Amino acid sequence: MNSPDSAPLVLAITGASGAVYAARLLQSLVAADIPVHAVVSPSGAEVVRQEIGLEIGGNSRDLNSLLSYCWPSDSKWPKPSEEDLKKGRKLVKVFNHHDFMVPIASGSFLTRGMVVCPCSGSTLSGIVHATSQNLVVRAADVHLKEHRKLILVNRETPLSVFQLENMHRAAQAGAIVLPAMPGWYHGVQSVVDLIDFVVARILDHLQIPHQLIRRWGTPTSGPSCIGTSPIDVPSGGTE
Ligand SMILES: Cc1cc2nc3c(=O)[nH]c(=O)nc-3n(C[C@H](O)[C@H](O)[C@H](O)COP(=O)(O)O)c2cc1C
Known about the structure:
Layout: E1 9-13, H1 19-31, E2 36-40, H2 42-52, H3 64-67, H4 82-91, E3 92-95, E4 114-119, H5 121-128, H6 135-145, E5 150-154, H7 161-172, E6 176-177, H8 191-205
Parallel strand pairs: 1-2, 1-4, 2-3, 4-5, 5-6
The structure holds flavin mononucleotide.
């Protein structure tokens, strides 16, 4: 049964740089017991192969390798346990990039939102122009038309006027444009801290609890302590 309580989150992985964000996000969703309906574009699979050396294949029916990935030699991102992997296999379903017969192609199937992470400029353009040329773009269009949460984690620099205009139009249509731009104010000590900054902001917008990063204004004993008392928080805060 597809009830609001058991509704899955849609995760699309497309061909922008930043495959690690997808791996960390997927594992965080599983850790939070969130069912995931995933789609990987062929370019997304290529970037995963290039950047973290995993073969997931554009039409792969499983993301087991992504579920078992960890950042090399950083205890902040330990190797997932057998139990985590078992849970992941149960919670994560993967759909073909060109299959429009699957549940997430229709607004009648309930979801708790959609994240495109990472989101290529090409997929952004397809979403903004409502082309529905593949399942990622179709599912994103469904989320916009149903006024559900759609988070776009773009990664590109510098940005062309076209990309800026497309981001503007996506935001006007109700999407949350959340580029992979890690902040440095949470006591960064390793690459995993930077990855976690972006994943934490995604989870925050989905209202999924996590402890990936120390929040601004909360105490720490580390040397990179910043903003530990309310008086340190600048007006307007940080994003
Ligand atoms: C290794 C690699 C890295 C890429 N990085 C980016 C990127 O950071 N941002 C982006 O918008 N496109 C990037 N691209 C280009 C996209 O993959 C390309 O536009 C592709 O058509 C996107 O298809 P998709 O949106 O269906 O995944 C990259 C391609 C490769 C092979």
